[in-house]
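Dear support,

I submitted the protein below through the web form. The confirmation email said the job was done, but the results page showed an empty box. After a refresh the structure appeared. I'm attaching both so you can tell me whether what I see now is the final result or a partial one.
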Amino acid sequence: MYRKLSQNGVSEDIACTLHNLAYNYGVMGQYSDAEEYYKQSLAMCRVFSQSGVSEDVAHVLNNLGINYTAMEQYSDAEDYYIQALAMYRELSLNGVSKGIALVLHSLAYNYKTMAQYSDAEIYYKQALAMYRDLSPDSHRQTIASILDTLGDISEAANRNRQARKYYKQALSLYGQAEPASPLSITAIKDKLESLKTRKTTRCAIL
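What the results page shows now:
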């Protein structure tokens, strides 16, 4: 319909519909189809943006990265995330935006999935700081999730004191979040108990 109405087959409505199709295919796990429609949407968004730079272009770049992460094509994902991050930073007046935070979070998850934990930790910390700068109250669930993940990374590196600190912060935020996150709360309590048990066992051995 939109293509029939458009004189040259290019319009913002078509770009939006292509993006929605891509997202839908991604949700269904049909990542190759999602990739195709994201790329079509990206090309069209670039037509309507000034010098190929816009929030819409950055948004599609990030979603392409997410799609590639799901496809386990991590290098491709990294490339699109970096493009999206650079664009969001170019568009930001003060270097702080939800778009930047989202891409930092996506990059961190990509590195974590690749088992590049040092890189993942760096980007999780940057995303955490950004979400806190934006509005801690509006992003409690996300901040809690990042703290939880930082706890996991610290625990895996045998930095148990730091892990405990992250878990406790996450637990506090999950308790304040709406809607509540009972499964997350239970999981973090189990992690804290495991750290406590591990410490007690080590002391007993010594």
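Response: this is the final, complete result; the empty box was a page-load delay. Residues 1-7 have pLDDT under 50 and may be disordered.
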